[in-house]
Amino acid sequence: MKLAVVSAVILVVVFAAWPVSAGGYGHKEEEDDDTKSWFPLDNLLSLNYYDKSCQNFEKIVDTKVREWTKTDPSLGPALLRLLFHDCGVTGCDASVLLDYEGSERRSPASKTLRGFELIDDIKSEMEKACPKLVSCADILAAASRSATYQLGGPYWPNAYGRRDSINSYARDAEKVPSGRRDITGLLETFQSYGLNVLDLVVLSGAHTIGKAYCGTIQSRLYNFNATQGTDPSIDPKFADYLRRKCRWASETVYLDVETPVVFDNQYYINLQKNMGVLTTDQELVKDPRTAPLVKAFAEQPAQMFRHQFAVSMAKLVNVGVITAEDRTGEIRRVCSKSNSRPY
Questions:
Q1: What is the CATH number of the domain that holds 224?
Q2: Is 256 annotated in some ligand binding site?
Q3: How far apart are CA 328 and CA 43, in angstroms?
Q4: What is the DSSP string of 51-63?
Q5: pLDDT tens digits along 253-309
Q6: N or C: which end of the chain has fewer CB within 10 A?
Q7: Structural domain of 283
């Protein structure tokens, strides 16, 4: 009875967090000025930033993302993950794209990241259309949204005007939450971004698409807590399935094995059945701070998750941005290289 009351309260919180024009997220063409009533613009970003200087900005991004994902559909989830790894370090500043010895991109924590070539292709096209005007950070934010939307996910309003960072450090890549963190550690990380427990559960729902490398879960399957056994929180039949799929660390497994290419709420339903692939996934149903939210998203229509995902993503891409007033930023000519550094 107590859990039912908690879930009801959580649902009220979730619905209250929906955008004013909730229906507009499902279809790009329905976006209107209502979004300005809730979208934070206190960091000098603007929803109309490229309206005059580079009118085809989003069209170029959408076209390139569609071209690349048509050939390789797995690039869609990869772009979303690339954005998380960028924003989760020093903020959404394209630092993860810099490629030199000692950069985030060269860190062991970044070795499975993909999508760099697609971002480079977009940047190359952008330099032809709008030279020296569009930052790599804005391109990554726009490309991630485009990929999510093209996969059937929600559309959210992106404000633009980010600058690119000049520096990138491999040690900072360790700040990105890993699949083995506990909920308290995850919440502390999210709170440092200005995000909350609802954002944590919602953004974890990005695992409704994409894959994980088996190396990240083999300890759960073969040597949980140094017992040489399997994590008892995994459904036994699901554990057997994962062991068959993950004989080698280099193999991959879908994060949502039921509907792996559909952007829906099946991820939360799976968690309720003890079918979370990553440790951090399954921990969400164990912790009393997150379990009611998982239950709510599992039991309510998928559209509720989709709308809230749009809200949380609009917050995430606003984290730690560099703007024109910051002297430390620049608009890179090539996304993998700083204009201001010799490497």
A1: 1.10.420.10
A2: yes
A3: 15
A4: TTT-TTHHHHHHH
A5: 999 999 998 999 999 999 999 999 999 999 999 999 999 999 999 999 999 999 999
A6: N
A7: 183-311
